[in-house]
Amino acid sequence: MQARMNKRALFILAAMSVAAADVHAAPDLIDDAAGSQACFTRNYDAAHLAKKPNQKTTSMRFALRRETYPDSVDTPLQTFARLEIMRRNDTRPWRSIGQCAFDQQANRADGRAIVSNYARADGIACHMTGENLDAEGGIFMIEPVGDKLKIYIDDDITMRTEARVTDGPGEYVAFGPADSTFILDRAADDACADLHKSIAAE
Length: 202
Hints:
Number of strands: 12
Number of helices: 3
Distance between the termini: 31 Å
Helix content: 10-25%
Shape: globular
Largest sheet: 8 strands, antiparallel, barrel
Strand order of the largest sheet: 1-2-3-4-7-8-9-12
């Protein structure tokens, strides 16, 4: 419990530094224009999952899009992130929404690493939401590797099976050692079209 509270405190400090100035999160992945987007996917086959019986994630989709907060006026573009996973023995898609930004100290708070399995201090941090767009709900790092995307997670992420961000309180999904690093392939933008719609920013 104390470790989780400490991680949440580090998250809040990092989130405050990211919110202080919008820095375009991923120029190698999407350009700066409104509506620019990218979609990455990974489906783990039975052979892979058989070799890693402790891995709970069976598929993942991750989408980035440059947009503003809904109904906002004269606000800067942000890089919104939408994450969807499927899990073993569960037919429901689990989804989360948040924002990503690059910073020289993105993976540091109070002198310590926030995401322990990501070695560097600088990088692109994705801060996911809790009960609404203003509440924290976990953090992970992303890194472009050629035409692929590497995702580093060692935090619990608030995710939902409902269609909207604020439908229900959400549930913390634990990403253990077997679900800490994912390599996703670039997909066509329309492969994430329904993901954008299912968890539209509110």
